[in-house]
Amino acid sequence: MNIENTIRPVLCTTGHEPCQGAWFGSGVLVKKQAHYFVTAFHTLDKYGKHVRDLRIISRLGSDQLIPQRHGIRTHIDDTHNYEDIILVRLDSFFIIESGLDGQFWNLSDMDRNLQEGDDAIILGFPEPEQTLDYENNSGTYCPILIKGTVAAIDNIEKMIVINTPSSIPLTSFNDLSGGAVYKMNQNHPLGISLGGIILQGGRAANIIRALSVSCLLNIIDYYEANHFKDDLAKDKLLRMKQDSDAPQGPNS
To answer: Hey, which residues does 70 pair with through a beta bridge?
Structure first.
């Protein structure tokens, strides 16, 4: 699996023509029973954007969008309040039919075993590497891979700290937020596992901070245990309505 396929830029509508979308950060495609796009809430909030403004492209370089079902700001209960994470449930029917399923990271308990000293891979869309023309709605979204080392794990706040080399040719870690931290994992069939979702980066200190994937698994497990069956039934009804509303050919 090419893990670079699992990340997407955070694109939002601007409300101004001719520019249909503008880039605001990074996000990750993950799945369990359903398919999701995960990003940091502040990638939207700092620009006054909302989940309804998100546009998630099916592939880098494509104008095709993945249909969204709804977004969840992850205040779940008193013990599951990860308020800087947004979970957007996507249209699983569309994803499977479009051959996109293989671009989603399949979350499992094997992703939970992050430890200090692990080799880490940071993936996202840092601001200095993006060449964008908002007025003409064009540009290149360039995913960047940065190697690092897990320096600390806060088991209370569920945050992890990754040290990065000072030789990285980036002037800023801006807009890496919402991106992915993977780790080398010999026990995983793919030799790698998802370690966390980036929430903060400091280029001057060569540090990336991320929310542990254990929190993300808790969020999704809670959501799927309480809502998945009802949402799946709604999806089937919606798909049936879309099919019935589609234009019929002359031989239909």
So the answer is: 89
pLDDT band, residue 16 (cuts 50/70/90): low
In terms of DSSP bridges, do strands 159-163 and 180-184 run parallel, antiparallel, or are they unpaired? Answer: unpaired
- 160-to-5, 29, 212, 214, 218 alpha-carbon distances in Å: 23, 20, 6, 11, 16
The DSSP string of 227-250 is HHHHHHHHHHHHHHHHHHHSPPPT
* The two structure tokens encoding residue 176: 């890496």
Strands (E) located in the chain: 7-12, 22-31, 35-40, 54-55, 68-77, 80-90, 105-106, 119-124, 131-133, 138-140, 144-154, 159-163, 180-184, 192-202, 207-212
Q: Give this prediction's pTM.
A: 0.84
Give 192-213 pLDDT, tens digit per residue: 999 999 998 888 889 999 999 9
pLDDT in tens, 49-87: 888 888 888 988 787 889 988 766 554 444 444 678 888
Amino acid at 163: N
Most confidently modeled range among 68-77, 97-106, 211-220, 227-236 = 97-106
28: nearest Cα among 41, 37, 19, 20: 37
Q: What is the pLDDT of residue 75?
A: 47
- Asked if 182 and 206 touch (Cβ cutoff 8 Å), the reply is no
What lies within 8 Å, CB to CB, of 73 at 6+ separation is 41, 51, 83, 86
